[in-house]
Amino acid sequence: MAASTPTQAPTDFDYRLIWRSRYPRPGHHASTMAGAGHEFRARAPLLDAPDPRRLALRASLADPFGRLFVNLFNQYSAIPVYALVDDSASMDFEGVTSKRELRHHFLASLAMSAYRTGDPFGLAICGARTERPSFIPATRNAALIEDQLAHLRDRPPTAPDAAGLRRAAGMIGRHRALVFLVSDFHLPAELLNGLLGDLARHEVVPIVLRDSAEDLARAGNGLVRMRDAETGRARTLWMRAGLRSRAAQAARDHRQWLERLLTGHQRRPFFLEDAVDRDRLNRYFAQ
């Protein structure tokens, strides 16, 4: 049974981009879109860009043909932010905390961060391949997102796998987006490679959910009852030093495998264990 965990209030964090937005809507991020802003873009004749408010006096006076010039600037633009969410049965693990609650806290914090930054936020949620994804396009309708997140928190995930994530990924729009891939990443290599390929045009941030109780290396000696979260199959193990050592090595091997696979796609994972840590998230993006 999970330890009683107080509800964690959402907290915003500062995500950043390493590329310029092409989204037409004004916002917070550096972009390639011309418009009202303070970042100098180019200089053009007034006849080509008829906006006398931006008259470039020095360039106009220096022109030997007497032409008038105006300054052009880049606007700051919004970006679509999406959460692509694993809703397979392993996301219902309970240990130090409820992994479902941890997922909810992160998604609520992400939604708050997007709205405070001025970006539209959307959700793509799916488990098995046969399930129809739950999809909300990027929107500024906070109430719609809050209702969907509350439903996701209250409904236990039961899908036997997360193969439907590829179907959900295909619903994200054509505009380049910032996509947070939220999962425990107990996924086959074939599925994960295919999913990252589907999302190649977007900026993907893998959020790896972890519960410290999943670490068998921390368990004491004695009988331990184990249950496979995806299949529901249960077994009893006699925990001893040798088994703890093998479990610790298996956990290290899986983490190294996951990091190699993700960095091979130029994606750096963020490991979120037990609670949302705003400071760690800010440092992740600052780096």
From TrEMBL:
Residues in DUF58 domain copies: 67-256
Protein name: DUF58 domain-containing protein
Species in which this protein is naturally found: Spectribacter acetivorans
